[in-house]
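so the lab meeting is tmrw and i was supposed to have these ready like two days ago... anyway. pasting both below. for each one the top line is the aa sequence and the line under it is the structure tokens. i havent really looked at them closely yet so no promises
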Amino acid sequence: MKRFLLCQTILLILIMTMVVFSQNKPDDLPFTPPVSIEPFQPVFHFAPVNQDTTNSCWSFATTSFIESEVYRIHGRKIKLSVMFPVYYAFLEKARVFVETKGTSLFMPGDLFPMVIEMVRIHGIVPESVYQGRANGKQTYNHRLMEDEIKDLKKEIINNQRWDQEWVQARVRAILDTHLGAPPVSFTFNGSTYTPKQFAEAQVDLVWDDYLLVMSFTYAPFNTFAVLRVPDNWKKIDRYFNVPLGQFYMSMISALKNGYSVAIDGDIGEPGRIGKKDVAYIPAYDIPGAYINQQAREYRFDKNLTTDDHLMHIVGYTAIGGNDWFLVKDSWRDAFEGAQKGYFFYNADFARLKILAFLTHKDAVPEISALSDKQ
């Protein structure tokens, strides 16, 4: 009898545990998410592209943002080459790696400023003239290219070969094999351009009009500071730091007023569910009411929030009093659901997991006014 009662008790505990787990697992959404992109009234942008086996989300997100800006300002729809900035970014990383005798990061990851810097220096080209997929490949796969660059780094260090000309030639050879050599000149809409001429004539953006914004207590608010993440390998200190409330509301204001926002965030979260096109913060992680500056900072300090991925927010809507952001995303799980290449981010996820953003200064006039005083 006692054994029977013990078995019953164990069975009851197992059933209760399964019930609790099923009620809290991420797939059981505690809300009704958006079902299409239409309510967001998205700004102009080209369809999402899967980055496949690459670590170049930073270029996918930033070139998408630039494309939207070119249309917003000039009314021109120009699909830009994602891999053109990647090609020259690898050469720049190799240069600094040699210059610093191997202390600088020489890895595939990067951030918004690298794309802008490469466009400033080298220009840009349309996707139609440079896809960055050599040998007729239809998808992106940088695994072998990155392995070869890793082997080259070891060779440089082991042989102490800090020779800029030799290293640049070796890196170019690797890039040319896997991405193809970028064009020196090309024809677009009947006119011939160099990449620099194309950037000046067709893209034609004033790069100083763009702001990088973050929200962390490790730096004083209303000042420029370094975003402390590994991919900020150049230690760029032009991120304007504001309180979380202003950070969050300024994104909403920008989107409501027809601007878009490129974002840097953490995507390795249980509430980011590709098959449901949704990203939210489950209550078992932290209830929404407790998401504040301190909760955000704690997760960043403890490496629970990391610099995973760059994306492009192209729309905003409110449903049932809840804020939702339409995120154009190049990562593979964004193509698992019905909205191929998009995620619906809810307010809690945005407040807790977006580290920084890039937008036009006119999109965030209050922040812009503060930054002008620095």
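ok protien two:
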Amino acid sequence: MEQDWLHRIALSILEGVGPVTAKSLIGYCGGEEAVFKSTERSLLKIPGIGAKQAKSILSQNVLLKAEQIFKDSEKYGIELIYFRQDNYPYRLKYLSDSPILLYKKGKMDLNHKRMLSIVGTRNATEYGVSNLENWMKVLQSYGPYIISGLAYGIDIASHRMALKYNLPTACVLANGLDTLYPKLHMDTAKKMLENDGAWISEFPVGTELIRENFPRRNRIIAALCDALIVVETKRKGGSIISAEYANEYSKEVYALPGAVGSATSEGCNYLIKTHKAQLLDDIEDLIKDKDWQKYNQEKKKENHQTSLNLSTYDTETQTIINVLMTHKAIGIDKLVQICALESTKIASILLNLEFEGLVKVLPGKRYKINL
């Protein structure tokens, strides 16, 4: 088992090899271990693999480094989650650029039925924070897990408000989980772990914080959720990047509107104006859009959904259902890209699911799960 993890870790740290190429390598070579037993000649035939990448794969140094990462992860109590495991977040699983390996510290179930990401400026105002607290008061009756980035401003306010109203919360970091940034937020981060939250990263132990890691961190924040809220932000910055990723991943995006001319609301107003986010002045709008039920109404909702038993479907149909469950709506072309199935096969499966009432067809030949 440890040997399996060494190859998985090694794949995730190969120089010049991102998640998309790593998954391609596994497919072409027939498995993780087979990648590292390939010849240079066979590697160079794989799309996306050049001399630099082949050299990195064939070097023994990458396996030695992977072994050290594995030992250090055990030392710090960090869980490794591989993209082929059942506990890998299903909201990420079918995204082409999802990391092949995640590092997690804490008890949080990353496949919880309600995940809400909140991002915003590092220079939060009373307007943003007060709205955030009002939302959390309402959300505590619906039990979403709160995801953010532990940064100054709206991020840390989101984590602290979640803790205040007994909502598990997780931070996604742009460095290894053996260190925490900013250190000033260590007390809050520890309380998150004590309250069934988590620290999450795609970067292995020993990875230092660098500017280039933040966009990668932002895409995980966007991908992990069912909906993303931008509270306050300037026209450019990490929150806008998160919103762009969320739109790319077909997530619901909401933004708190602000006064014209306000620097901290400029980005939110832009997202709303360009239809990249829905205006959010009342959290009940989001709750209604997501069809969330309060705890005392949840049992009735669950009883309705228990009729869906994925084990009764073949593997290809299960894959399509899982993808549909992670998108608000999606077209056949995108399904072909994600599921690696022929369009005619997907169309046939969708038609059958439509007859069953499990799938709803939207204008523009887009499809959504009908639960």
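from a quick look at the 2nd one: The radius of gyration is 21 Å. Confidence is low (pLDDT under 50) at residues 299-306. will dig more after coffe
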